[in-house]
Write a structure and sequence with these properties.
It is built from 8 helices and 9 strands. It is of the alpha/beta class.
């Protein structure tokens, strides 16, 4: 079972929040109910919200219309979408959430009392995965759960390889060999390669799982059998 005395970092994929141009009300209702129930049980959460498909739409649109766009501008497009998504998440947790969405990771929250904190993107060159690892470091978390529309990490790209096999566990070295060691705005990998390097140094456990399957998340938190990939 996950240590309840330490906060859980949830890296919430933006594509779960805004899958097709508008909020997924059914998922957000279920997520709200699940997290609030866990808070009653004594759990604490930092929820870092990604830009997901919304960010990629803006980034791809800018590239198509403007031609060569700097990574700095492309990153800012992604960052602004994370902040919009994060503010939406903050509103659904009114009453149990810290009043400010984290957008600057240089200062820790003093005298934190609320059981939920929502965070967004910070600055160019940093993905929300990197932001999530930074929170894990600053608030002494041991587990970071990456909730996206990917159920597990595969040994090769399943979209291009029919024989790709899901992995229940993988080391940081093997994972880095798969995803590379560079980050570009909108890069679509299970976990940011740069964030992976920091997570390895911290000895952080990162779990990749399907964020839409909340009973599966519950199983992991209780120490029961679950479907996902543990990196570390």
């Amino acid at each position: 079972m996950v240590d309840k005395s330490k906060p859980i970092i949830l890296s919430l994929g933006g594509s779960l929040v805004i899958p097709n141009g508008g909020p997924d009300v059914d998922f957000l209702n279920a997520f709200n109910t699940f997290v609030r129930a866990k808070v009653i049980e004594g759990w604490r959460f930092f929820i870092v919200v990604g830009g997901g498909s919304t960010a990629r739409h803006y980034i791809d649109g800018a590239k198509t219309i403007g031609g060569k766009i700097s990574d700095w501008d492309l990153d800012w497009l992604g960052i602004h979408t994370t902040r919009l998504n994060a503010h939406l998440i903050k509103t659904i947790f009114e009453g149990v959430v810290h009043p400010r969405v984290i957008q600057n990771y240089q200062k820790k929250i003093a005298n934190l009392k609320e059981p939920i904190v929502v965070a967004a993107g910070w600055k160019p060159g940093w993905s929300t995965d990197y932001d999530a690892v930074t929170l894990a470091r600053d608030y002494d978390a041991e587990v970071l759960i990456n909730l996206s529309n990917v159920a597990q990490v595969y040994d090769k790209d399943p979209r291009m390889n029919e024989d790709a096999k899901p992995l229940s566990k993988i080391s940081w070295d093997d994972f880095s060999a798969m995803v590379g060691d560079t980050w570009t705005p909108g890069k679509n990998v299970p976990f940011d390669p740069i964030a992976s390097k920091v997570a390895k140094k911290l000895g952080l456990k990162v779990v990749i799982m399907d964020g839409g399957n909340l009973p599966n998340l519950d199983n992991f938190m209780k120490g029961n059998k679950f479907v996902g990939t543990v990196i570390g």
